[in-house]
Amino acid sequence: MSTEPTQDTSASTPAGDPAGVDARPARRLLLEIGIAVLLVVLLRAFVMQSFHVPSGSMEPTIMPGDRVVVTKIGAGEVERGDVIVFDGTDTFAAADRTPFASDGVIGRTLSAIASTLSIDLGEQDFLKRVAGVGGDRVTCTPDDGLQVDGQPVDEPWLEPGTTACDTPFDVTVPQGRLFVLGDNRGDSADSRAHLGDPGGGMVPVDDVVGHVAWRYWPLDRIGGLGDHAG
After folding, report:
1. What is the phi/psi pair of residue 97, to 5°?
2. Which of 107, 152, 157, 204 is a good FRET partner for 171, with 20 to 30 A between their CA atoms?
């Protein structure tokens, strides 16, 4: 009677793995997750970040509850009329202290990763429009409106009938600093609220997080800032 050869199955068990379980797929998955986390962290740190806007200081351009994406590329290249997010820890202190929060799909992902890695999500971040850059003389009166170096500034982002300011001011912006205003002039604690503080409410360019690139929520207002953009 012929005897069937016995199949040797010893080779199917990886050496050093008595349980017969190949750990390589698990290690590969952990590596891929690690790479994905690193890419998201780098994306947030150097490219873009998602913010939820809780206050009405930028109405009607940006409404409470809007979700915006801020691009960090060229953050230090700021011009008059730009809408920016900046770290106001050292300049705006507790005024207008409604923190921005990461939100939406991008925001929740970043928030979860940042929480895990103890990354500061910027609870002192503020969103305003640049009215003056280094060297500018920025003035405003209720009758003459906003002016830079004596030239009137067209501000189509203001609500019709809104005055550029209720209280006159006249400032010269130091080099490397920014004078910022909210579009909702009657309800925005911006550079005007800090004229008597050290630094005069002027935001260092180095504190700029980035420029508001587009709005992704609500869906009926998705896209750029449109006619209200600087």
Report:
1. -85, 65
2. 157
